[in-house]
Amino acid sequence: MLQEQLQQAINNKTKPLGALGALETIALQTGMIQGTVRPVIRHPHIVVFAGDHGIAATGLVNPYPQAVTAQMVLNFLHGGAAINVFTRQHNIELIVVDAGVNHDFTQFPDHPHFIHAKIAQGTHNYLEAPAMSREQANAAIAKGKEIVHQLATKGCNCIGFGEMGIGNTSSASLIMNALTGLSIEACTGRGTGASDEQLQTKIRTLETVAQKHHLKAYDKDAIGLLSKVGGFEIAMMVGAYLQAAEEKMVILVDGFIATAALLIAKELNPVVLDHCIFAHHSGEHGHEKMLQHLEARPLLQLGMRLGEGTGAALAIPLVQSAVNFLCEMASFESAGVEKKSEE
Ligand SMILES: Cc1cc2ncn([C@H]3O[C@H](COP(=O)(O)O)[C@@H](O)[C@H]3O)c2cc1C
Ligand SMILES: O=C(O)c1cccnc1
To answer: Which residues constitute the catalytic centre (predicted)?
Structure first.
């Protein structure tokens, strides 16, 4: 019923049928999520989850040193990162969460946009042991849910998730490998810019990890998978996706790592996908196949491969435009514009 009403409202706007393309799909989806023919976007947020990865200290999978995670968190807090620039430009609230960075941030006790939610000082190196315990994975998920619930109570109904964690493209590749069955090679890209040789080492290392943790034999235990090869920022994002769907939010899905977290969230509750708008097609090798696996059609293809929620932030104004055309455009009837002649 509502779907037909929305489609009719969209079709009756003063434009050729279908002429607003993907914006029409978003308008329909947003109306369905909010249960109305007049959706509104309120207090959009990007939440960036940060966490360190034990594997990063080995240098086998990441061109940049592990310390960059904490340094970038400080950069977020000082307003100097790409995600700060884009959220400022589009009036999007930015929240930064320490999910498990290997650094003490107690010098920022009262920063208004920083949430201390550290599970541990980084994960274990999954070449040696599971990245985290099941208890830690569950605690991270619960914290992600709590953060999003708080934002919902403040009126936010549109959200995107970003991440910062040196080495986390590797977690994302391993999760993708387990959940899609595609080879490690198909799931692994250059991350922050691995050379040909570094990429080969990364692939070999991740193949070893996949064997050690029996990722081929994924047995529907998504929390188990998360604890073996995940990261605290990824686990918290999983909880955040689940709660955002629960709160009937419109969710913008960012790049490779954010989509890998969504793969896990989907395992836990497939309904999450109904709330997701795929912001962009990341330049990271593997993202395209991940999107295909989800039958997702991303809005933007800008060759971006940064993370931080930057793609999600750029797509929020498009969602706003979709909602605005639905609510503000005249219909053929109200504007006295003639419709196409019947065949
Ligand atoms: C300066 C800098 C800023 C970043 N912002 C996001 N990432 C991105 O790169 C990291 C993943 O790539 P890999 O797995 O190759 O380490 C994540 O932290 C991600 O958010 C950054 C990376 C760097 C170096
Ligand atoms: O697609 C992404 O989000 C991405 C790709 C490379 C490095 N960091 C993030």
So the answer is: 308
* Residue type at position 220: K
Q: What is the pLDDT of residues 274-307, one digit of tens each?
A: 999 999 999 999 999 999 999 999 999 999 999 9
Residue 323 CA, ligand 1 centroid: distance in Å: 32
- The architecture of the domain spanning 2-38+328-335 is Orthogonal Bundle (1.10)
Marked catalytic residue, from 233, 308, 328, 338: 308
d(CA 324, CA 314) in angstroms, rounded, equals 17
What dotted CATH number matches 45-320? 3.40.50.10210
> Catalytic: 308?
yes
Lowest mean pLDDT among 53-62, 100-109, 260-269: 100-109
Q: Cα separations (Å) of 219 from 103, 171, 224, 263, 312?
A: 35, 18, 9, 15, 31
Average pLDDT, the chain: 98
For range 233-262, the mean pLDDT: 99
Give the type of residue at 155: G
Ligand 2 atom at minimal distance to the Cα of residue 311: 3
Cα(306) to centroid(ligand 1), Å: 6
